[in-house]
């Protein structure tokens, strides 16, 4: 498998600017939950690779193709970010960046070209459907093949939650196991939402009955006579599920379409006139208007993946098609951050605020399933006025499957207003009571960087991970300053009055058992050491010792993963002889 990220969108509706330079920024650079959206996608990918390593004992680095554009220096900024992060420990050769062309915009009101000065049109990215033709022209398909990849997952940059729990693994599994050509991850959709839908198309053709699962954009509903009605009277759920642009792609099948010298290589061509554009003309006058451009949509390549049968299929036979769809709960599939929320607006759809609320809702469901007593979720109005009832940001490598998280984290309580940040994968949590802020920050979350022959630092999974064990621990501190006007919760930009912070340098371990930790405390464990905190006669007792000999690679303990029938992953703790 490989991954494909279309990042070329301008993201005008986000109004994102650099706080220092004032430069307009593309969507990929949006600071979300403490990191850019692009870093979040790579983090999700590393979590699945770490899961593969722990389950099968093999190092795997999936190649990533990224479509950028010239809009708002998108290509330059994405390239610079990858360089500054050392290509995320994946090696530069495992990335392929290719640039999306820009096309002129036309005014929705009168059809005139928008211009910034005479003969200089306003240019915008022309939709992500060009990705397949562009990938063929730039050699992206051949690049994937040389790396032994025949299929890929496609994720859009504006959807940070698509990797939640089983979503991407299920999409990949169905596509690969059943030799499918194209697949969609779908979910419920609200009536009237500005989202496309996934449908099964059945047509009587010249040679029989044609079938395919595809997408219809919301802008085309009226044209095609598709009613946007509820699934049942009084319901807000639409009768057709949402297209989320979380896709499974069989690369040779898509390449055959992309290589043809016709309009077939640019699927789903539409003229979308519903997007607002702000621009300055040659008189220095700022204009705000609805405008559009000819776009094509990457998901509509499925229109050309048709199966023909001599007779109509029964519903039970639809699973034999080359195209498919998998379903999950909406907040495990999509919650996009596409537009800035107005301060007086309570509508959260497609805003970073709304997306982060879904992150919190997912955390509430997950941690509750770990038998942790959680504060109640509150109304949207309360969230916007006072912030979320708690903050919980867990590194996806703790799972990413929730059944794995449920074995690493069991019991305890988070009180209202608490903050939990777990930047770690090797974690054992049992009956922890948290009132305030707890930050566990491992330098080596899923492995360690090691030099290679070509002088690149590559992340080797499972080696030298930071580890943390918390058993029957009570943590009390003042935590987040919920009254601070500087807090931006969806950025995880918060002011703290106090916190318990555990910093794990390199290959180090922290253990705490049967202790009550109060106030603002920082435990910092140097590389190669294990710190053990217990309750002494005169207060907290803290012991620091080198890691046991012979455990320099995996430490004094580690989780062993075993894949069982039905896809369940069983965890068992392995300890060294000297532990």
Automatic annotation (TrEMBL):
<dbReference type="InterPro" id="IPR029044">
    <property type="entry name" value="Nucleotide-diphossugar_trans"/>
</dbReference>
<dbReference type="GO" id="GO:0006048">
    <property type="term" value="P:UDP-N-acetylglucosamine biosynthetic process"/>
</dbReference>
<dbReference type="GO" id="GO:0003977">
    <property type="term" value="F:UDP-N-acetylglucosamine diphosphorylase activity"/>
</dbReference>
<dbReference type="Pfam" id="PF25441">
    <property type="entry name" value="Hexapep_UGP3_C"/>
</dbReference>
<dbReference type="InterPro" id="IPR039741">
    <property type="entry name" value="UDP-sugar_pyrophosphorylase"/>
</dbReference>
<feature type="domain" description="UGP3-like C-terminal hexapeptide repeats">
    <location>
        <begin position="409"/>
        <end position="573"/>
    </location>
</feature>
<dbReference type="InterPro" id="IPR057388">
    <property type="entry name" value="Hexapep_UGP3_C"/>
</dbReference>
<protein>
    <recommendedName>
        <fullName>UGP3-like C-terminal hexapeptide repeats domain-containing protein</fullName>
    </recommendedName>
</protein>
């Amino acid at each position: 498998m490989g991954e494909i990220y279309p990042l070329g969108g301008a993201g005008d509706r986000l109004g994102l600017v650099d706080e220092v330079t004032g430069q307009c920024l593309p969507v990929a650079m949006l600071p979300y939950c403490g990191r850019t959206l692009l870093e979040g996608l790579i983090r999700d990918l590393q979590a699945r690779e770490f899961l593969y390593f722990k389950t099968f004992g093999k190092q795997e680095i999936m190649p990533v193709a990224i479509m950028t554009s010239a809009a708002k220096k998108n290509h330059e900024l994405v390239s610079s970010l990858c360089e500054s992060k050392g290509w995320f420990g994946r090696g530069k050769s495992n990335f392929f960046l290719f640039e999306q062309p820009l096309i002129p915009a036309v005014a929705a009101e009168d059809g005139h070209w928008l211009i910034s000065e005479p003969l200089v049109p306003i240019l915008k990215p022309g939709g992500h459907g060009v990705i397949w033709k562009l990938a063929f022209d730039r050699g992206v398909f051949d690049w994937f093949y040389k790396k032994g990849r025949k299929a890929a997952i496609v994720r859009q940059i504006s959807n940070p939650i698509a990797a939640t729990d089983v979503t991407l693994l299920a999409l990949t599994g169905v596509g690969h196991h059943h030799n499918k050509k194209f697949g969609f991850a779908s979910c419920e959709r609200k009536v009237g939402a500005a989202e496309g839908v996934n449908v099964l198309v059945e047509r009587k053709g010249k040679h029989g009955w044609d079938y395919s699962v595809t997408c219809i954009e919301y802008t085309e509903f009226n044209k095609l006579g598709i009613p946007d009605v509820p699934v049942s009277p009084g319901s807000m759920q639409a009768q057709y599920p949402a297209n989320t642009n979380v896709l499974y792609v069989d690369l040779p099948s898509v390449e055959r379409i992309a290589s043809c010298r016709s309009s077939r290589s640019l699927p789903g061509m539409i003229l979308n006139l519903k997007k607002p554009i702000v621009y300055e003309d040659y008189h220095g006058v700022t204009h705000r208007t609805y405008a559009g451009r000819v776009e094509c949509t990457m998901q509509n390549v499925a229109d050309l993946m048709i199966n023909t049968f001599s007779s109509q299929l029964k519903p039970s036979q639809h699973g034999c098609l080359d195209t498919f769809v998998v379903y999950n709960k909406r907040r495990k599939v999509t919650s996009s951050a596409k537009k800035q929320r107005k301060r007086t607006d309570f509508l959260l759809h497609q805003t970073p605020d709304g997306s982060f609320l879904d992150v919190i809702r997912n955390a509430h469901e997950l941690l509750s399933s770990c038998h942790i007593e959680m504060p109640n979720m509150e109304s949207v109005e309360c969230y916007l006025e006072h912030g979320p009832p708690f903050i919980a940001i867990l590194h996806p490598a703790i799972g990413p499957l929730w059944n794995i998280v449920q074995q690493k984290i069991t019991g305890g309580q988070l009180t209202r207003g608490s903050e939990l940040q777990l930047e770690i994968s090797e974690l054992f949590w049992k009956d922890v009571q948290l009132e305030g802020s707890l930050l566990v920050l491992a330098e080596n979350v899923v492995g360690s960087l090691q030099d290679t022959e070509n002088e690149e630092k590559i992340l080797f999974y499972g080696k030298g991970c930071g580890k943390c064990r918390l058993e029957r621990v009570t943590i009390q501190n003042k935590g987040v300053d919920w009254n601070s006007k500087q807090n931006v919760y969806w950025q995880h930009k918060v002011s703290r009055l106090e916190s318990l912070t555990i910093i794990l340098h390199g290959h180090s371990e922290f253990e705490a058992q049967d202790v009550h930790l109060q106030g603002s405390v920082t435990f910092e464990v140097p590389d190669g050491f294990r710190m053990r905190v217990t309750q002494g006669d005169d207060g907290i007792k803290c012991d620091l010792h080198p890691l046991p000999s012979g455990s320099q690679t995996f430490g004094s303990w580690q989780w062993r993963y075993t894949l069982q029938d039905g896809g369940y992953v069983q965890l068992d703790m392995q300890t060294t002889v000297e532990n």
